[in-house]
From TrEMBL:
BP GO terms, sorted: putrescine biosynthetic process from arginine, via ornithine
Chloroplast as UniProt keyword: no
PANTHER family: ARGININE/DIAMINOPIMELATE/ORNITHINE DECARBOXYLASE (PTHR11482), ORNITHINE DECARBOXYLASE 1-RELATED (PTHR11482:SF6)
Catalytic activity: L-ornithine + H(+) = putrescine + CO2
InterPro entries: Ala_racemase/Decarboxylase_C, De-COase2_CS, De-COase2_N, De-COase2_pyr-phos_BS, Orn/DAP/Arg_de-COase, Orn_de-COase, PLP-binding_barrel
Residues with the N6-(pyridoxal phosphate)lysine modification: K59
Protein name: ornithine decarboxylase
Species whose genome carries this gene: Panstrongylus lignarius
GO MF: ornithine decarboxylase activity
Length: 434
C-alpha cells in the first residue's frame, strides 16, 4: 500500500533521505518522492503555457501516487494501451480526460477504448484508419505527423511514428474524410527531452498549414493541436517562449481551438531522488570501482532506454582532507553490462556502507525496473510538506475518510502518515493560479 508522509515545517527531502539512510536499519536502495515538486512543476506549466492543457504521459511514471496527484491538479492523461487506460479510469477519472495517443493500436485495445468511452485517438496510417472504422467508428481522431528535432535525448521519433507532413499527411486526412471518420486535430512529438526548441515552431508551422489546407480543400475544420512531449526543465522557459510565439503567429486568438500537450519527465523527474549504498569496492591500477545496490536492470534502466546521464552525489557533505578520485560505479547484478557510471569523480575516502544519491530520477525509471538476479526495485517513500498537503486536502474534502492516521516513529520529524485505503483518492482538480 502506498503512503504519503506529511512533514513538519522546516523538514525537506534531504532530511528524510539522511534519516532513512543513516538509521542503521537500511541496506536496500530507496527513493524519496516529494509531492511538492510535482505541484510546483504543474503550476510552472500553467503559468508558462496557459493556453496548453497538459495530458500527463502515463508511460513516464505510472506510480499510483503520481497519477493521483496529477488527477487532483487537474491534468488529463496520455495513455498508450488498455493497461494504462485502466490505471487512469480506476482513479475515477472520466474517459473524456484521456487521449489514446498510440498511433499503432491493437484491435482489442481500440474496441476496449470504445466501450470505455475513450474517444480521442491518434493515427498515422491508412491501416489504422480501417481498424478504427471497424472497432471505434465514432472516435475523434488526431493525425500524428513527424516532427523530429535535431537534438533530443531520445531522437528520431519519426522512425516509428508520424506521417510526413509534406507528402503523407494530407492524403491521410482525405482518406479519413472519405471513410466518414471524424478527424478533429493534428499531433506531433519532437522527441523526448528536446534540446532544440525551434523544433516546436517548425512543427506548429506545418500543423497550421495542414489546418488551412484541410479546411479549404476538404471542408474539414479541425480544432485540436497536440504539441506532444519533449519538455525539459533546463530549457523550459525558452521552449515556452517559442511555443507561445508560434501559437500566436499561426493560430492567433482563435478561441475555438484547443491546444494540448503530453508532458511526462517535466512533471515528475525532479520529484524523485534515489539513494544507493556502496556494498562492495575494488581498487585497481586505474581507478576505484564502487558496487551499489541498484543498477541498469533496476532504476538505472534509463541509461539504456532513455539515453539518460546521471551524476553520483555522496550523501555525506563534508569529506575534509579527502581528494576527488576517478571512479566507476557498478550495479549489483552479475552482468558486466550493469555499469552506472564509467568514469566519475568521488571522494577517495568513500567506503562500504556509504550512501550515494542520484537526483531527478522520476522519469522512465520505475515503470521499466525488473527483478533480474533477484534484486527487487527500490521502495518509494512519498513525502509532502504540510502546506502543500493542506492545499490538496482543502480541494479534496471527500478524501479525508479514505486515509487512516497513524503515528510513525521511524522518522523523528514526521508528524503524520496518511495511508491510501481507497482507489478514489485525489480526484477533483485543484484550481491553480496562472
Amino acid at each position: 500500500e502506498e503512503m504519503i508522509s506529511i512533514l513538519e515545517e522546516g523538514v525537506d527531502a534531504r532530511d528524510v533521505l539522511k534519516d532513512i539512510a543513516l538509521s542503521g536499519n537500511q541496506e536496500d536502495a530507496f527513493f524519496v518522492m516529494d509531492v511538492g515538486e510535482i505541484i510546483k512543476q504543474y503550476e510552472t506549466w500553467t503559468k508558462m503555457l496557459p493556453r496548453v492543457k497538459p495530458f500527463y504521459a502515463v508511460k513516464c511514471n505510472d506510480s499510483q501516487v503520481v497519477l493521483q496527484i496529477m488527477a487532483a491538479l487537474g491534468a488529463n492523461f496520455d495513455c498508450a494501451s488498455k493497461g494504462e487506460i485502466d490505471k487512469v479510469l480506476d482513479l475515477g477519472v472520466t474517459a473524456d480526460r484521456i487521449i489514446y495517443a498510440n498511433p499503432a493500436k491493437m484491435r482489442s485495445h481500440i474496441s476496449y477504448a470504445a466501450k470505455a468511452g475513450v474517444d480521442l485517438l491518434t493515427f498515422d496510417s491508412v491501416s489504422e484508419l480501417h481498424k478504427i472504422k471497424e472497432f471505434h467508428p465514432n472516435a475523434k481522431l488526431v493525425l500524428r505527423i513527424s516532427a523530429d528535432s535535431y537534438d533530443s535525448q531520445c531522437p528520431a521519433m519519426s522512425l516509428k511514428f508520424g506521417a510526413d507532413p509534406e507528402t503523407e499527411a494530407y492524403p491521410l486526412l482525405k482518406e479519413a474524410v472519405a471513410m466518414g471518420l471524424n478527424v478533429i486535430g493534428i499531433s506531433f512529438h519532437v522527441g523526448s527531452g528536446c534540446r532544440e526548441v525551434e523544433a516546436f515552431g517548425r512543427a506548429l508551422a506545418f500543423t497550421a498549414g495542414l489546418f488551412i489546407r484541410a479546411q479549404e480543400s476538404l471542408g474539414l475544420r479541425m480544432t485540436v493541436v497536440d504539441i506532444g512531449g519533449g519538455f525539459q526543465m533546463n530549457n523550459f522557459e525558452k521552449t515556452c517562449a517559442t511555443i507561445n510565439r508560434a501559437l500566436s503567429d499561426y493560430f492567433g486568438d482563435n478561441l475555438d481551438l484547443e491546444f494540448i500537450a503530453e508532458p511526462g519527465r517535466f512533471m515528475v523527474a525532479s520529484a524523485y531522488t534515489l539513494a544507493t549504498q556502496i556494498h562492495s569496492l575494488r581498487i585497481n591500477s586505474n581507478q576505484t570501482m564502487f558496487y551499489i545496490n541498484d543498477g541498469v536492470y533496476g532504476s538505472f534502466n534509463c541509461l539504456l532506454f532513455d539515453h539518460a546521464t546521471v551524476t553520483p552525489i555522496p550523501l555525506k557533505e563534508n569529506y575534509f582532507g579527502s581528494q576527488l578520485t576517478t571512479c566507476s560505479v557498478w550495479g549489483p547484478t552479475c552482468d558486466s553490462l550493469d555499469l552506472v557510471s564509467e568514469a566519475c569523480l568521488l571522494p577517495s575516502c568513500l567506503n562500504i556502507g556509504d550512501w550515494i544519491l542520484f537526483e531527478s530520477m522520476g522519469a522512465y525509471t520505475i515503470p521499466t525496473s525488473t527483478n533480474f538476479n533477484g534484486f527487487a526495485p527500490p521502495k518509494i517513500h512519498h513525502i509532502c510538506d504540510y502546506n502543500n498537503w493542506c492545499r490538496i486536502k482543502e480541494h479534496l474534502p471527500e478524501t479525508v475518510d479514505n486515509f487512516t492516521y497513524q503515528q510513525t516513529p521511524y522518522w523523528k520529524y514526521q508528524s503524520k502518515t496518511y495511508e491510501n485505503s481507497s482507489s478514489s483518492f485525489l480526484l477533483q482538480p485543484i484550481t491553480t493560479p496562472h
